[in-house]
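Researcher: Re-running this chain for the archive, since the previous output was lost when a drive failed. Same request as before.
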Amino acid sequence: MRSVIVGSLIFLAVASAAVCAGDIVTVRQADMKAIAAATKSIAGMFKVPSTYSSPEFKWAAELIRDKAGQTLIDHFASEAASPASKAKPNIIEERDRFDRLANDLKSYAAALAVAAGKNPAVMTDSMRMKPGEPMGGGPLGTHVKSEAELSSLPAEHAFHLMLQTCTSCHVRFRME
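Model: Regenerated structure tokens:
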């Protein structure tokens, strides 16, 4: 049984690599749509806390985490411009900035997954931002500098920072 699973995983990896090599724009657009859907799911739970489901919240956060960071960086490792893409060519020129945003996205999503694990039953007050809590920075400049700082924030704050990271990246690197 184990060899069947390993064989299946190898087949999927090879097939995935072939698709990636053949049409990276389609793959990265699919990943972006998956990130958007996961983000909407989390947003809905913050909007209506009675709909909170720790497993769904964690699954959505982990999906975002797994499609961010190095995965996202690899999706844009070569020429970003393509007639089928909305990516600006400046991703290549501003590699360090793009990579930082991709890694920030991963960090914020990972913090959300941890919060779901710590709150298995209901969305607790500790997950929510307090009225008047400062957001810090703006959509073009927010960045939590350490994991310790990030882990001290309510999950809702980490979620807003994640949204600001998406906005920052889209403003800088996406054609409208």
